[in-house]
Amino acid sequence: MKMALSLAEEARESGEIPVGAIVVVNGEIIAEARNEKEMRGDATAHAEILALQRAAQKLGHWRLTDATMYVTLEPCAMCAGAMIQARLGRLVFGAYDARAGAAGSIIDLLDHPAFNHRVMVKSGVKADECGQILKDFFNSRRRDS
Length: 145
Hints:
Structural class: alpha/beta
Number of helices: 5
Strand order of the largest sheet: 2-1-3-4-5
Helix content: 25-40%
Number of strands: 5
Order of helices and strands: HEEHHEHEEH
Low-confidence stretches: none
Mean pLDDT: 97
Strand content: 15-25%
Largest sheet: 5 strands, mixed
């Protein structure tokens, strides 16, 4: 999670919402990403989506059943859906997202019985640190506007 927090800090410094994600297989980081929505002008350029894409490219296939993603913020519905599609094995996230969280806060898509794959989830890891970087970012934006 420390690496994901470092990526979130990079995102913040470049004006992006500070979210960072890494994908690990067999103890090795195979992909990393941070939010790039503003830079790319692409609403789908969330850290989780980019990390899933990079992991699949590194492995040479889209099935990530042996992978664990560490991300600083609870995934939204789009990212949770991508995790299901990628057959992600495990998700570890930091801060809960009471406005858009799709891994337990608003809805739990990752453990929904209607889907053909369920992702194991561990939540709240370094939640205070992960949440603080987001609070600081949004407080700064409010002050500047």
